[in-house]
Amino acid sequence: MSAQLQPVLIDGQWRAAQQPVGSFAATSPGSGALLERHYPISERAEVLTAVEAGAAAAEVLRHTAPEQLAAFLERLAASIEAQAEQLVAIAERETGLPAQPRLRAIEIPRTVGQLRQAAQAARSRAWTRPIIDTQAELRALLGPLGAPVVIFGPNNFPFAFNAVGGGDFAAAIAAGNPVIAKAHPGHPHTTQLLAELALAALQAADLPAATVQLLYHMQPESGLALVAHPAIGASAFTGSRQAGLALKAAADSAGKPIYLELSSVNPVVLLPEALAERAEQLAEELFASCTLGSGQFCTNPGLVLMIAGPDAERFSAAAAQHFASGPAGLLLSDTVAHGIQAALAELTAHGAAVLAGGVPDEREPYRWPSTLLRVSGAQFLAEPAALQTEAFGPVALLVVLEDAAQLAAALRQLEGSLTGAIYSHSGGADDERYAQIEPLLRWKVGRLLNDRMPTGVAVSPAMHHGGPYPATGHPGFTSVGIPAALERFAMRWSYDHVRPTRLPPELRDDNPLNLWRLVDGHWTQARLG
């Protein structure tokens, strides 16, 4: 007898999947064993049913008070806190990520914090950025898409980026859009429980039943059809470049926006003066950052550039010792291990030499040894694309360049990344050198750091978690940081000579919400007239 399949959430009801085309179960990385719950792979007709329900919910949400959206987000945050122990236990089993401190002390607080920040943004309406031109009698603001948003959750953040309750989810809801969540198959039970909490919260907030829907998995062609469907407002995807670009091609063909986070090597430049001052300390920092969470962060420092010399050799030797002595990291899945293996094959085929690690233990397919590689600057410049292959795991590549001119040439060859860092002398002895190379790196990354590794991502209005392709599909948007993250799931509403009583409150002369508005080129909270 086949295992009973878990229900999908469609239009406010947990129901058996209709004619699923298959099923799957998550695997526990700690043991390598399949977990007991089985989940359906939804057939295309079921996906389209969710779209229809989401479209109907969007019509209602267009006229829903922001206070209701805020109340929903706050109820969900409180529910996650109340169920934190159960959620953490499930997520730890499904992902192998440690309960403490990663899941309980870091990711749960970040997740509920995002939800509450999104609630505040929905309530304040400041994110709508009202603009008034009194001479032309034109007024504009950002408003909901009026259509459901599809969110594809990644494997490495079972809470903070989950398709239900994560940052994209919070932003889409706060902007007034329903969500069709596509769970990551690595943590379906975690996502299922989050959806149960979300359904209860939306019922308490009296939101439409299809404000939150959940599908666990679908065939690739169904995913392509989903992001291209006429009734979809936008999509958000975090995952592999190959899958993301396939979804983008489908969405683009239908004129539908899709926001992608794909791959990033996050270059770190170590200036000679910094190496002379603290080479061993920098080697330790690189190792700690690169192996945090077994390197399974989108901001993992995967590429280190430095100019040849005794201090660079001192750093290289110290780093190799750290990587060689570090324990093998537990990976989220065997798919991640296969990806690392393929990336290393590409890197070594194009001249990179392994200094430490690189050879997994076949008896532990879910673990990977800390791996450090090295390549010359000349070889990097000869094969820049291949030597920027992302190895999603505890892997870093050292690029040793002949001189400052070759460093500048290498920086010009960098692909887009989420982050980039420059380590320099603590006393400013290399300020002139910094000023020469900073512009070359600045255009290649979304977030530039000084004297620190890029792994952490603060949930702050000033955070930019984005960057040039292939880090993301569009350099102007961020998936972390509220209210900016809401702008991906909004459209500009413009009003031309519309009667005052028919304008939304954000654009009325009396400014009942007391918002800062751009009126005739000046920011003001003043009433008009």
Question: What this model shows, in words?
Answer:
The chain is an alpha/beta fold and 529 residues long. The chain has 2 domains: 8-19 and 34-262 and 479-485, Aldehyde Dehydrogenase, Chain A, domain 1 (3-Layer(aba) Sandwich); 267-450, Aldehyde Dehydrogenase, Chain A, domain 2 (3-Layer(aba) Sandwich). The protein has 14 helices and 23 strands. The chain has helices at residues 44-61, 66-82, 84-95, 99-124, 167-174, 188-204, 220-227, 241-253, 272-291, 310-325, 334-349, 377-382, 404-412, 431-442, and strands at residues 8-10, 13-15, 22-24, 39-41, 131-133, 138-144, 149-152, 179-182, 212-215, 234-238, 258-261, 267-270, 303-307, 329-330, 353-356, 367-368, 371-376, 395-401, 417-423, 445-450, 490-496, 517-519, 522-524. Strands 15-17-18-13-12-19-20 form a 7-stranded mixed sheet, sandwiched between helices. Helix 8 (241-253) links the parallel strand 10 (234-238) and strand 11 (258-261).
